[in-house]
Amino acid sequence: MDLAAWLPPLARWGLPVLAVVLTLGILIWAIRRTLPDEPSTRMLRQLFIIGAVLLGNILVVVVLPLDGQTRGQLLSLLGLVITAIIALSSTTFVSNAMAGLMLRAVGGFQPGDFISVAEHFGRVTERGLLHTEIQTEDRDLMTLPNLFLITHPTKVVHRSGTLISAEVSLGYDVPRRKVRDLLKAAAEEAGLSDPFLQIRALQDHAVTYRIYGFLEEVSSLVTKRSELYAMVLDHLHGGDIEIVSPSFMNQRRSDPAQRVLPEPTVATLSDDHAEQPERIMFDKAELAGRLNELLEQRDALVEEIKRLGQEDGDTPSDQEIAWREQQVAALESIIATLNRNQPT
Description:
Blueprint: H1 3-34, H2 42-63, H3 68-88, H4 93-106, E1 114-117, E2 120-127, E3 131-135, E4 141-145, H5 146-151, E5 154-156, E6 162-170, H6 176-189, E7 193-202, E8 207-215, H7 221-238, H8 278-281, H9 283-310, H10 318-341
Antiparallel strand pairs: 1-2, 1-5, 2-3, 3-4, 6-8, 7-8
């Protein structure tokens, strides 16, 4: 085999492709250096990398030593392939990418927020281009495709506080005002503010009540919900109110006047929730939420420094700008530490 005969075609075809590959590699490296792997920039970073790969494919066709007609046919074929992928990808890569862009544009939730979609509940740990990751009450990580979130109603717990409730059915022989006072006291004992009661239904066998209370610190949502249930039980039993299901059947021979009630107890939380389970359940989501808040603070300080540097008239002192730059540096250090210690 004559190697010299192969070198000119190899150089003519291989060198342009090699140049494009090297350029693409440098471009992707620059994107990764410019856009760090942080929640606020992760989706933009993924989009730029995908765009760079598509651009590389087009450049390969452009730089190859082809005649104009063949190059035009290849570019048309590439365009048709991309169009077909977008048109036929109802449940594939592009659909999830489009759904991810829509979620980012809507801005319905952030890392650290509690969300509930279909039968899934948890705290958001990561928002990507193709999927959203949540941490469930079992501390496990669950990946939800962005298309799934777009096509199902998503409930987001408001960061400024939320209402939690407990529902119970009681007999018609129990005075309504007594139930109201006991359930409101239960909500206050559980640490909820502004409690109020609703009568949800007048059924054949019972009246359905629901007690609401406002929870300001949503990070303790699971604990406070459990505490509210506990306080409802304790206060109703302490008020000599019997809670049984409509199908309750006592098979024992007993005095008809005997009621099924536990022994009266003092309505306190004792040590049931001395240690908040949310710290274990949602450790990654808690860290992601904290990281997102720090990134927002850092970006706000950077914008403030730029604004001070561009102001006319009263020039801000160097000490004022230097103080904000020290804050930015401190936040950068904390963010880097949190990124290193983030659980996987």
